[in-house]
Specification:
The complex is a heterotrimer of chains A (309), B (317) and C (353). Chain A has 309 residues and is mainly alpha-helical. Chain A is 76% helix and 0% strand. Chain A folds into two domains: 2-74, no CATH class; 92-302, MetI-like (MetI-like fold, Orthogonal Bundle), CATH 1.10.3720. In chain A, α4 (88-123) packs antiparallel against α9 (218-256), α7 packs across α9 and α9 runs antiparallel to α11. In chain B, α2 (37-45) packs across α12. In chain B, 49% of the residues are buried. Chain B is an all-alpha fold and 317 residues long. Chain C has 353 residues and is of the alpha/beta class. Chain C has a domain at 1-102 and 233-353: P-loop containing nucleotide triphosphate hydrolases (Rossmann fold). Helix content of chain C is 32%, strand content 22%. Chain C has 13 helices and 13 strands. Classes of the chains: A mainly alpha (309), B mainly alpha (317), C alpha/beta (353). Chain A: Residues 96-299 form the ABC transmembrane type-1 domain. Chain A: Keywords: Cell membrane, Membrane, Transmembrane, Transmembrane helix, Transport. Chain A: Belongs to the binding-protein-dependent transport system permease family. Chain A: It holds the Pfam family BPD_transp_1_N.
Chain lengths: 309, 317, 353
Amino acid sequence: MGRYVARRLLQMIPVFIGTTLLIFLMVNVLPGDPVAALWGDKPPDPAQVAQIKHDRGLDLPLWQQYLHYMWGLLQGDFGNTIAGNRPILDEITAALPVSARLAAMAWTFELVVGIALGVIAGIRRGRIIDNSVTLFTLLVISVPIFVFGLLFQLLFGNQLGWVTPTVQNSEDMAQLLMPALVLGLVGLAYVARLTRTSIAENIKADYMRTAVAKGLPRRRIVSRHLLRNSLIPVVTYLGTDIGTLMGGAVVTEGIFNVTGVGNLLFQALARREGAVIVGIVTVMVLVYLLASLLVDLLYAVLDPRIRYA
Amino acid sequence: MPDLTKTETADAPDQAAEVTAAEPRNGAGAVGKPRSLWGDAWRDLRRRPLFIIGSLLIVLMLVVAAWPGLFTSADPGSGDLANHFLQSPNLTHFFQPDWFGYDGQGRSIYARVVYGTRNSLLVGFGVTITITLFGGLMGMLAGYFGGFWDSLISRLTDVFFGIPFLLGAMVVLNSVDQITVPVVIGALAFLGWTQITRVMRGAVITNKHADYVTAARALGAGTKRILLKHILPNAMAPVIVIATIALGTYIVAESTLAYLGLGLNGISWGSDINDATQNIRNNPHVLFFPAGMLSLTVLAFIMLGDAVREALDPKLR
Amino acid sequence: MTSMEIKTGSAPSSRSGGDDSGALLDVRDLHVEFHTRDGVVKAVNGVNYNVSSGETLAVLGESGSGKSVTAQAIMGIVDMPPGKIPQGEILFRGQDMLKMSNEERRKIRGSKIAMIFQDALSSLNPVLSVGYQLGEMFRVHEGMSRKQAKAKAVELMERVKIPAAKDRVNDFPHQFSGGMRQRIMIAMALALEPDLIIADEPTTALDVTVQAQVMDLLAELQQEYNMGLILITHDLGVVADVADKIAVMYAGRIVETAPVHELYKRPAHPYTRGLLDSIPRLDQKGQELYAIKGLPPNLLHVPSGCPFNPRCPKAQDICRTEVPPLVPVTEQDGTDLPGRGSACHFWEETIHG
């Protein structure tokens, strides 16, 4: 087990380097000049621009810039913003807890409601309840998340007045409820579908027949035999979805004015602050990689047939 | 992008397996046609309401995209602020310019919804065809040849999977001056091809070790023949399902980007929804119609993909 | 009705009580059908058989003959829908189980009637330890604690001769060999010392050498507990050693019943004769092996008349039009042959000719 984790961590290194390199390259082909942007509409002073670029190493070849960046990362230095010269890490750590909280709430919602709907539909396959759940998930998957966001905002915020249309205080969990609901809706539908399919497949398995033949009560057959086996693929999805939720928060945070990572990213894009974008994606890649490792480890707990070699 | 593939191998024999096993056999007189995977799937599909509704909708969308002029006489680009500013819809005025009302610039929402279809479908099909060809090829290489190629391609897909899809697309589109249809297709395909690669690789590996491939090899079939005649037709099933559903999700991606202000030049449902947010509070109709059309299009592809998946997966019958 | 009551329970078994009313299990005119999208599959068409305590009934037939579906109907594990039992009775100790409530039936399953399945690997839950799966029987039916149940599980595993049972009780099914897994299935069936065990091709998936060991174990335990045993198989070799009586099934019907050795000596149905003739024999070395021509019938379209008629070497016109009922078989002089029956219009020629 320990050796497996070590090996997986080692394997992550090239992926991590590759992903940061890719996003670094993508960001640095941005045509806009963040330094010149400091002057706003006024014509920038070329000498000063050159000086700032020199100080920050922005005049070096791209590969050298990347190496500098990675070297800084190893020491926990994400660089500074160009406008304001603030440490990027500080900006990210200020925004991250908000997004993390939002993602965690959305994730819990996905897990609880998604699995519940999937189990009900899977067990009653072909019945009305199954068809309703299927229809519901189809609709949820088809309606883009920003449409849901706008609709919910319009309905619960403006029309019914149950919540404020936008979040006033991003630290307040109660206010994050609506954005979290919107954020988790699509994942919920996928979890429900996956659970349903998995249940419907496993319900026909030989070991289920054995469980019935053993004279076990229905509750026990479902909870101990069917669920244990059916939830294995669902766990994989839920694990990788942590990363998706963090990334997908851009839209939701924008609609509800939550000051999280998505919000930060938006500002960075507008100001063409490439280093901030790379920093955010770097953090998200780390989250994604660790989540997938966690999923693989959890897999072994759930499925004894999987062995780590 | 959610990965919809499932690769676990729970075998689920029917209770009536013993009975059904005898079904295709012919006793006295009863003649049944031999069934193939695709033939069987087709028979099954024709009876599925999801499939019928989905494909009818898609055909309709394609016609609208190809000949938008057939459906409306209004010009989607020109607005009459003086007379039509945010005018409410007239739901009985079928196919008239004021059917869905007017937007904040006095333009016919119905006309814009009609003319927006083309770009959405172009992006959806463009991305899907590109990633199916390129990603599929990569997956086949990785799955069939294994070894070095597999390691290389698999690590590459890992790298791309690490980048949040929407963020990556935002970065790319933010850097270009002119967001045209090919640019959007390029950006989304660049970030999305790995999805198909993974599915194809998995399917090829599964089929590579199947007995019928071993048998074909024992009979002296060459690499090319085995790949094209034996493995590909069987590995295509999951790829087609994923591609169909992905098509819908790429349409969503395009409109989401447009909503975020990174829309393509020309009419896009996403951009119209972005415009709508300014007037949404008092005139929700500016949101409803483009959003409804967008959702309906996506729904059509997802229904189709779902129906095909269920038809191709004998475990779910 | 196409079949009549046959008193197979009065077979001259050394161990059985003899009397029909004492039968542990009595299946009467059982029909099972499956409603599929291609039509109604009539899997079981009026089956009658019974088993007494300590007696072994072998049910013989090809795949699709309905032998497994009958067993599943007895266990109450036929999927409904698509399955349906339009008529028949399954009497267990004189009570019709088809009329019982779900809860009553559940309490019988596992504790009074247990089943051993063919493929132990897929029939055992892959993600639960064997100790848990064995212990579950005691926890559910006898309300034992987790700890007691585990101790019982170890005991059971020793009982079916699994070496190092104590160390292996927490292992998972995939960590055992095929033979050991089948022993675990047997242990599970045996856990609560049921009155009747149904073994559905218990050795088919195993190596030949292991087959004999598992069969011997099963027979030994059956004698020890004086259980009734229904052995479902397509292997005539397995039957000869352990069964008291045989019911041969074809297309959802019983076509012949007989005490085991009588059947081998003098089959009274052309189908049984065909099966026996297709066993390779040492004294016929060098000759071509006999095979019944054709395939088992499609249960969606069972041939009219005797379902075996398209494959029967002796088929006459009457065989294509009239379904032969299961009639008692007698000696040429009319002496009763207890427990024998045949569903062939020409049973007399078959057995005596």
